[in-house]
Amino acid sequence: MQQSNTYIITFSIILTVVLGLLLSGTSQVLGPLQRKAEELDAKKQILGAVLDGAQLKQMKPEEVLSFYESRIISKVVDIEGKEVTQNPDGSPIVAEKVNVGKNYKMAPESRMYPIYVFHAEGNPESVESYILPVYGAGLWDEIWGYVALQTDLNTIEGVTFSHKAETPGLGARITSPDVQQRYQGKQIFDESGNIQSVWMQKGEGKDYANDSDKVDGLSGATITANGVNNMLKNYLQYYSSFLSNQKSSQQSEVVAVN
Question: Model's pTM, two decimal places?
Fold first, then answer.
């Protein structure tokens, strides 16, 4: 019996070591591939706020990455709209590496806020849109997205939304092009210059073409719609200092030219 137990224990140890080595090796092989896939997906979502979905789908992965590098300049600001370039340890801050989901668990004043500037081809000085990440909670789990603003920093050029576990056919419809297109041309500021955000309405099937801050809702997905509304309202407020600073900068440039 003692010999049998020794054999079982030895076999278990060897098996554990072998499996551990196999898992470690698999992780080392697949890890870079997984990170590459995550990078590609994030950049496709960012570009999706300014590009036609059909155009983006036709692009090969290497074309997406190349287009991104040639048309996007990124930076990070704090809650006051001031650019931050270094971590406390002195290492450089890269917008694409900022985990907005982890930041979401921190107090707003402690978070980092990435900004993606979409510029004309070959001319970084000719800005076409400012793309802002947004993050929140849906019915079942996290939701997130990107809002592209035209150069007036008020009119929405486009949005992309995504989710982790919303209900298929209901809340999950926030990823569909027809829902996202409803936000195009809407405005995030009211006539007094205050952020009004854009609000998805309860129910579906109404025309809000004449409303600058309203879009049609999602039938049967009120909680997800409310999550999107809160996400947009909160994050547009978090970026309000950056937007104000950028507007002031643009106005100063116009005065200087004149």
Answer: 0.86
CA distance 119 to 122: 8
What is the full DSSP assignment across 187-226?
BSB-TTS-B---EEPSSS----TT-TTEE---TT-HHHHH
132 bridge partner residues: 147
Give the residue extent of every domain in the chain.
44-257
Per-residue pLDDT tens over the stretch 30-88: 556 678 888 999 999 999 999 998 889 899 999 999 999 999 999 999 999 999 999 88
